[in-house]
Specification:
By secondary structure, the protein is α+β, with helices and mostly antiparallel strands. It has one domain. The chain is elongated and about 100 Å long. The termini are far apart.
Length: 176
């Protein structure tokens, strides 16, 4: 065979068929779908962070309410006229007309000497004593609200919680 003849050239096997490549329209469409999906995902992040923050505040408020109930339960064993050891609450609340207010920090720790003082911290707890206690049960309504600076009190010591960003309320029946 003559090396210069046309028929002696080898056929290239590395060529790709036309159907194996992506067109520019397909690539653009795929990038558009990916960008829309990422944009939607990033738009949900602020909502998720706000929900997480609200959950943390509600959990802290519930922990504060549980601590107050435990302190009221322990204070029932004190002699009349003495205040509770942890929050200085009135253990025998039969003659108590005004609610007790307590101030708590962001992490739920009690601010010492803040009982019945103006609160500028994150959480304020209001303990309203209900009905004179019976021989076996004492009743209290405990409301924990935040931020403390938004809560206003009237002349009777009752809180106005309309400006609070959030609140948790619980009813405590403490048995002796």
């Amino acid at each position: 065979m003559n090396p210069l003849t046309f028929s002696s050239r080898p056929v290239l096997k590395g060529s790709l068929p036309k159907a194996a490549a992506f067109s520019l329209i397909e690539v653009t469409l795929a990038l558009g779908i990916a960008a829309f999906s990422l944009l939607t995902l990033f738009a949900l992040l602020p909502v998720a962070l706000k929900t997480q923050q609200a959950s943390i505040q509600q959990t802290t408020a519930n922990t504060i309410a549980s601590q107050i109930i435990a302190d009221l339960s322990a204070a029932l064993r004190l002699p009349p006229g003495q205040q509770s050891k942890q929050f200085n609450l009135h253990g025998r609340w039969a003659a108590r007309l005004h609610p007790d207010t307590l101030c708590f920090a962001k992490d739920g720790t009690f601010i010492p000497n803040s009982t019945n003082q103006p609160c500028t911290d994150v959480f304020v707890a209001v303990v309203t004593y209900l009905e004179p206690p019976t021989e076996t049960t004492s009743l209290a309504d405990i409301t924990v609200a935040w931020p403390a600076g938004a809560i206003q009190f009237d002349a009777n010591g009752q809180p106005n919680l309309s400006n609070a960003a959030g609140q948790v309320e619980t009813f405590a029946a403490v048995n002796r």
